[in-house]
Amino acid sequence: MGCLSSSTLGKPMFTPQLYGQLQTQLSQWITPKDKRHLTVFCENVAAILQSESGCLSHWLKYLGHRCCKARSQMERLHYFVHNPNITAETFYIPLLKQFLQAWTGMAMTLTLDTSMLWDEYCLIEVCLAWGGRSFPLAQKVIKHGSASVAFADYCMVLGTAQAVLPPDCQVTLLADRGFEHGELIRWLQNQQWAWAIRAKSDLKITLASGRSASVATLLPKVGQAALYRDVTILGDIQCHLATAHASVAQESWAVITETPPSLQTFDLYGQRFGGIEPHFKDYKSAAFEMTRSKIRDAQALSRLLMLLATATIISISMAIELIAQGRLNSIDWHAQRGLSFLQIGLRYINQLCYLRLPLPPLTSLPRANPPPACASLKKRAAMSTRIEFDTVTVF
Q1: Are residues 48 and 189 in the same domain?
Q2: How many folded domains does the chain comprise?
Q3: CA distance 46 to 42
Q4: How far is the C-alpha of 88 from the C-alpha of 131, rounded, in Å?
Q5: CA dihedral of 143, 149, 152, 157, whole degrees rounded to 10
Q6: Residue 76 located in a structural domain
């Protein structure tokens, strides 16, 4: 690697290995009108992968090849995340389509959810649940003081996610309470997507018998499950309702779905918790610590999150390659996989940088959906626990 001296201050002395290799690989799919944007995009993603941080000031030590002062570097970074020409359509979606190219005709489970940032901004995401975690297909930040959003706030996110899916996929969307919107369900019906949405206790249900009741009055006792077929909600939407109160749970569950209900309905909906919640935690604290960012602008936050999403799928790709080589035990000390694919990929990339080894070619997501990671015997036991009910009633 090159070194810097006062006589050459202001002149780039070398191209950092990770940044250079990312630019070579990403330029195959990302072709912005201004090539300088791709240069800065790759520099920033490389800095995120090495710093493992969504805080711009933490990237500075990985941008030293530009040989300019830290204040100038920060101005460049802020200009980039505030630049309206930096869009997911140009930078993230082409890479994501390449990453998902092997999934043509596959069954895909998507999650729709929101997460609050500083009680001032709301992050809306549609993610693909895979490997016990998830990664974003589409995301948007709005200035909004609540995690509850209207259909008009997230319909564009759904449309973007739909546009990146491979052809002929069988899609199931999972969503939390607060998304039981008639506009959403009708949109899902038009797309012929399956869906399962957790219902609020005050949702009005018209049963097959013609009797109307709120969800709260239909919830079963502890240890019981009640499945209601052919119900009507929100005036004219035909669907089904699955309710249960497992003895190990603190509260009852109520899930509306277009698929005839069974106990498997709860297993399906449970994938949302293992997917989207850890993903939000990766953004906020477990991996990238973006809450330390000083950015307070919805559009700039959306671009920052696009950079983090790019770093995420690159890391997952590197983890897949490492496992394919049979070298997982060089990174993960657990007997079975105990780290998420994101953490495996981040550690592998940093190992390659330390050893000055080349970055393997980015690989697409394999069609198989691996089981979740188990970092402890306690978690493994919890995942293998079989939940049983004393009675299951079908109406």
Answers
A1: no
A2: 2
A3: 6
A4: 24
A5: 80
A6: yes
Residue 323 near residue 360, CB atoms below 8 Å: no
Calpha distance 65→143 (Å, rounded): 36
Amino acid identity of residue 363, one-letter, is T
Burial (CB count <10 Å: 0-12, 13-18, 19+), residue 155 = middle
Residue 308 Cα to chain centre, angstroms: 10
What pTM does this model have? Answer: 0.91
Does 20 map to a domain? Answer: yes
- As beta bridge partners, residue 133 has 130
Which structure tokens are listed for 234?
């929100």
326 CB-side CA count, 13 A: 0
Q: What domain range includes position 25?
A: 6-89
In order, the DSSP letters of 229-285 are EEEEETTTEEEEEEEEE-TT-SS-EEEEESSPP-THHHHHHHHHHHHHHHHHHIIII
pLDDT along the chain (395 residues), means of 10: 40 75 96 94 96 94 81 92 96 96 95 94 95 93 94 96 96 93 96 95 93 94 93 94 86 92 89 83 90 93 97 96 93 87 95 94 91 72 68 86
